[in-house]
């Protein structure tokens, strides 16, 4: 995976960093959003950001060089405080090195406000919050796309592969297409404003690495044609603001049939969502979270409630989230 | 392949035929355009129409029921005059049966104005010309999309498979996505107005059936992901009028590496086209025709001339065509 900034083709031009060379503040508090990757028919190339959940980073400038992590909350002790092993500090260090400011000292507090291993881009949200924090402190007013290669370094460490379908939407907000990885080519897609997203995280364990390993390496051309007809339909529907077309196109004949086996009662959950007004239903990232698109907030709320009830009946706890697509991406909250 | 009209989802609503029940004229002369299917990264799902070449049908009402074909020109005797074996008469008969007017008698003249077996949708152009002719005679003012199932019957007969990536753009004009075959779901895509198309048909034989047979049935998931990133990029570029993105996205890692073997000096032709200002270059349909997108007419003309010269050097004759994308589809010319 290349992290050469020069290779990013985007609808935002790449801009070299011309910061003031100094820090603009002593500390900053940043939120970055959860993301839904794959989006049913866009395995490894599509993702979008939601308004909640998300992670928060508090970053403070220190007198001595180097990055420390003084506190992590909400992770049940699962994430490393060692800055050489934490995706947030590792990506921030890559950023500082790239702008020739490895002399800067930082302390990081990471507040996990979303479940780990949920398929909602948990590591991406943390990494993007950290990168947006240092960008803000450095007075780096370039398009956030310039942070993408550093965020991908974090993903490589967290998941064993430098994919961008969570970090790119977390960083840019909205709906994002990773047209190509080599060279990296990212396209921001529009979406209907009235598209709501209902997310349910069933509290079962589906590690990303294993979820990737069960995907078949060899597939049928016929199925691939079905899949790329659908992704072309989904992208058309996004541009045309055609929610019916979006719904018709969100079918996955390749990945979902395999990954759904790791998710409790996946097809029953789909039936519940679709019979209660969902436009589409599928796995978020590698699961176990699932999501539905709806045309309004109330339908999204009803669906999350019914899915949660169903999971409770299976003695499985769950978290639910309802939001529109988050066009802002990360933001400073203090 | 379903030919149930009820199953067509399109951005034009399906409309039942409510014709006057009578014929509006004694005869009609129709042109229907050649088409470029696949469009590099959209194997089996994308196609667009060009302004030239194309085929013509003259249709005359007879006193006695049944369809006859009195004349075919430009086919070097390769096409059957037997109405039970000709794709034009077969699709027109399907249409007449569907509207309960099998009593109508017709005579057809087919004028092939384009090479057969060129990869330019030769049979589709003829079929669509025939269907548009009977539609016109019947005073059937519904959206031409309603003719698609009959045109696909013709394709099934001509090519052994009822694909729509030539007939749909020939019928509708413009750039067309076949999102799904079962059920049939066709999406009209926009395109930049200043996109020019240079087409070169090298006069060598590449039968469609054999060109399909050499395509691999099993492919790598990794290559499929590359392909659907590209088709999503191409569709985005069409909506965004972003010719650079269109060009970057038009790469085919799956079909072209195999089919290019059947085309004389394919990679040299690509090099000539790209070094002379083409936005993209690829195989039209199953070949042997190739096409390039350009930003203006002169570049398209220069490229066809240079490719023709190169083929002449290989002692291969060729036909060349330069046009914008044809948004009109079939038209009455007399």
TrEMBL record, chains A, B:
Supply the enzyme class, top level: transferase
Domain GHMP kinase N-terminal, by residue range, is 91-174
GO molecular function per UniProt? kinase activity
Give start-end of the signal peptide.
none
Q: Which pathway, per its entry?
A: Amino-acid biosynthesis; L-threonine biosynthesis; L-threonine from L-aspartate: step 4/5
Keyword presence, Amino-acid biosynthesis = yes
Q: Which UniProt keywords apply?
A: Amino-acid biosynthesis, ATP-binding, Cytoplasm, Kinase, Nucleotide-binding, Threonine biosynthesis, Transferase
Location of the GHMP kinase C-terminal domain: 241-311
InterPro entries linked: GHMP_kinase_C_dom, GHMP_kinase_C_sf, GHMP_kinase_N_dom, GHMP_knse_ATP-bd_CS, Homoserine_kinase, Ribosomal_Su5_D2-typ_SF, Ribsml_uS5_D2-typ_fold_subgr
Which residues participate in ATP binding? 115-125
One Pfam family hit:
GHMP_kinases_N
Entries under HAMAP family matching the protein: Homoser_kinase
Q: What does this protein do?
A: Catalyzes the ATP-dependent phosphorylation of L-homoserine to L-homoserine phosphate.
Q: What is this protein called?
A: Homoserine kinase
Q: Which organism is it from?
A: Mucilaginibacter defluvii
The protein's gene is named thrB
């Amino acid at each position: 995976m290349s992290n050469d900034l020069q290779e990013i083709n985007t609808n935002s031009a790449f801009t070299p960093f011309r910061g003031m060379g100094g820090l603009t503040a002593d500390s900053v508090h940043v939120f970055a959003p959860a993301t839904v990757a794959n989006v049913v028919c866009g395995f490894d190339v599509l993702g979008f950001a939601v308004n909640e959940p998300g992670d928060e980073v508090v970053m403070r400038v220190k007198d001595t060089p180097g990055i420390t992590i003084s506190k992590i909350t909400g992770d049940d002790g699962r994430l490393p405080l060692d800055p050489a092993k934490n995706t947030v500090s590792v990506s921030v260090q890559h950023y500082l090195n790239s702008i020739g400011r490895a002399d800067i000292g930082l302390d990081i507090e990471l507040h996990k406000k979303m479940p780990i291993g949920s398929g909602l881009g948990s590591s991406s949200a943390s990494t993007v919050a950290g990168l947006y924090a240092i960008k803000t402190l450095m007075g780096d007013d370039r398009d956030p796309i310039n942070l993408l290669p550093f965020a991908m370094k974090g993903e490589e460490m967290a998941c064993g592969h430098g994919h961008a379908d969570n970090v790119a939407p977390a960083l840019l907000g909205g709906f994002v297409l990773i047209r190509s990885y080599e060279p990296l080519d990212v396209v921001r897609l529009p979406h209907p404003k009235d598209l709501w997203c209902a997310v349910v995280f069933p509290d079962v364990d589906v590690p990303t690495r294993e979820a990737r390993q069960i995907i078949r390496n060899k597939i049928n051309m016929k199925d691939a044609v079905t899949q790329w007809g659908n992704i072309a339909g989904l992208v058309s529907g996004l541009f045309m603001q055609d929610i019916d077309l979006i719904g018709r196109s969100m079918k996955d004949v390749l990945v979902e049939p395999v990954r759904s086996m790791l998710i409790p009662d996946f097809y029953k959950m789909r039936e519940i969502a679709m019979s209660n007004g969902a436009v589409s239903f599928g796995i978020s990232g590698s699961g176990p979270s699932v999501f539905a698109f709806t045309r309004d907030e109330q339908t999204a709320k009803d669906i999350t409630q019914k899915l949660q009830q169903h999971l409770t009946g299976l003695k499985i706890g769950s978290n639910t989230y309802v939001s529109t697509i988050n066009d802002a991406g990360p933001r400073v909250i203090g």
